[in-house]
Design brief:
Strand content: 25-35%
CATH architecture: Roll
Strand order of the largest sheet: 1-3-4-5-2-9-12-11-10-8
Shape: globular
CATH superfamily: Hotdog Thioesterase
Radius of gyration: 18 Å
CATH class: Alpha Beta
């Protein structure tokens, strides 16, 4: 599939920070970021994810529904980088598509550099929606402590997205999927009403990881997302992240991630891998 290109600016980083609450200084504070191993501010992982969702809407079709997304961030995206967003359908069965997703930095005469790679599973616009169950998050062998972090530590936040948040997401990302924008279109796809976009939901994890646990300065390396039910504007949602593994030698932390609605249903679950070498506070989370 043909890709599209976009250049992200600091104003885009700042808008996404305001929209999600994730004002991690590696995204928003040039002086802090300059002293980190990045050397300058870098784009939020979920801002890059919104570029993928825009491509899904435009290339798979309006009304496409996402079930899963895996993401790796092998290289940072800096202010002014020109990004190319590409999709490739790897498999298709009964309206379910496995799609390879890739963002690369491109430029005249420059070698393309991958900044966000992954794979997603989506439901084509004219296909029925399947049901899915949550995944297990077993603890793995690792170190007992790293920068005051310990296995089992958790943090949570609660948020209610309004239609203004969803509209701001559409304006910032350019994603015009009608199931995010119109109740009638969402009902035609089998939902009660318009949905909260998936990058906004996953942005709740971005906020927690980058501001609470592990904390400010955290860098996102990988994220696995599974969407088990829809979330709608006006619903109260609770996001939780919990440490499952610490690897002190590599300064890496694994966390289970989950979003639940007020009625108890799981909206999204998955797992995050983050780098903590740039933590602002290496004596431990301040909120515990």
């Amino acid at each position: 599939m043909s890709g599209y290109q976009r250049v992200l600016l600091q104003d885009d980083f700042n808008r996404f920070a305001r929209l999600t609450g994730d004002d991690n200084p590696i995204h928003c504070d040039p002086e802090f970021a300059k002293k980190s191993h990045f050397g300058a501010t870098v784009a939020h992982g979920m801002l890059l994810y919104s570029c993928i969702c825009k491509a899904l809407t435009e290339q798979i079709g309006p009304g496409v529904v996402q079930l899963e997304q895996s993401l790796m961030f092998p290289n940072p995206t800096y202010v002014g980088d020109r990004l190319r967003v590409d999709l490739h359908v790897a498999a298709e069965s009964d309206g379910l598509l496995d799609v390879l997703t890739e963002l690369t930095k491109v430029g005249a005469g420059a070698t393309a550099v991958a900044t966000a790679t992954g794979r997603c599973r989506v439901v084509a616009p004219d296909a029925a929606l399947p049901s899915m169950g949550p995944a297990a998050h077993p603890a793995e062998p690792g170190d007992a402590e790293l920068y005051g972090l310990r296995r089992g530590m958790s943090a949570c936040s609660t948020r209610t997205f309004g239609t203004a948040d969803v509209d701001e997401y559409g304006d910032l990302s350019g994603d015009r999927n009608p199931i995010f924008r119109d109740d009638a279109e969402a009902r035609a796809r089998g939902f009660k009403r318009r949905l909260v976009p998936w990058p906004l939901l996953a942005g709740m994890f971005s906020d927690l990881l980058g501001t609470q646990l592990p904390g400010r300065g955290t860098g996102w390396m990988k994220q696995q997302l599974r969407y088990l039910s829809a979330a709608h504007p006006g619903e109260t949602l609770t996001a939780t992240v919990a440490i499952t593994r610490l690897r002190a030698e590599k300064e890496l932390v694994n966390l289970a991630t989950r979003i639940s609605a007020a009625d108890g249903r799981v909206v999204c679950d998955g797992e995050a891998l983050v780098l903590v070498k740039n933590l602002e506070n290496k004596s431990g989370p301040m909120f515990l």
